[in-house]
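Question thread 4412

I'm putting together a teaching handout and wanted feedback from people who do this every day. The idea is simple: show students a protein as raw sequence, then show them the structure tokens that encode its fold, then repeat with a second protein so they can compare. Below is the first pair exactly as I plan to print it.
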Amino acid sequence: MRALLLGVCVTVTLGVTACDDLTETTEAGDASTTVTSLAEASTTVSEAPTTTTTVAATTTTLGSLLSQESLDYAASIGGTDHYGETLWFAIGQGALSSEAQAKTLLEPAKALGDMQSNFIVQNSSNFDGMTPGYWIIFEAYYEKPGEGDLVFLRVPFPDIYVKSAVVMTHDPIPVRHATPSP
């Protein structure tokens, strides 16, 4: 009740620059309520029963170019929002024409032997420093991946290449640290 009245008062206060005495005060028992109005209004307040609903958590990024399936997969392997960060990308496959094509090529790269890869599908338009308009498969790194990382990543993608770009999306992206050179 207090929040409702506060909202009404704020709305009225913001909408009026000057006015005559439009304030009406009513008192009932120990409670006092002040309502300010510009026109006749009636308000009915009643207590409603409380209901608790549990909803399963999902990751949804508004305005994303990706399907919910791709967003959920990236989040499930540790992807988080890296908007505005400059990252390194080991691009296994670039210049693909559809997300469906990229997802098909991603499947065999998800697990490499007994190790989990962090390859995901993304759209190159989401990165400043990449040619926009293509679907790509990459693994993201905080620093430039070394030769040891690339040897591992070449198993599913022999023509892998590395480039740096700025993330321009709030989509979840899993990011690793590069393996230090010996």
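The second pair follows. I'd like the answer to focus on this one:
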Amino acid sequence: MAEEPCYTYWTVECKTPSCGGLLLAYIGPYDKRRVFFLAQCRPFEVICPECKNGHTYTRNEVTSKNLALEPRGFIPSQSFLEAIRPEAHLEPADT
């Protein structure tokens, strides 16, 4: 019997063919009653640790994924965290 996922992460699929998925950020403990929706996210770039290529991603490419991988020691993508910051979406004020 397969182990049930325990943790939820924001992820994207690497755009290099035959490469895998990339973990962007830890969301929280797995809860089958919750659905995660990324309300806002500007385009961001991530360098894949496997193929070493950098790719730009948009909100439509980000998905939540449930994994048995513990978040202890996990380092989130800083470019993704910047892209989802609410103040990153505000237009600059005219001065």
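Top answer:
Good format. For the second protein you could add a caption like this: The chain has a mean pLDDT of 89. The chain is about 5% helix and 30% strand.
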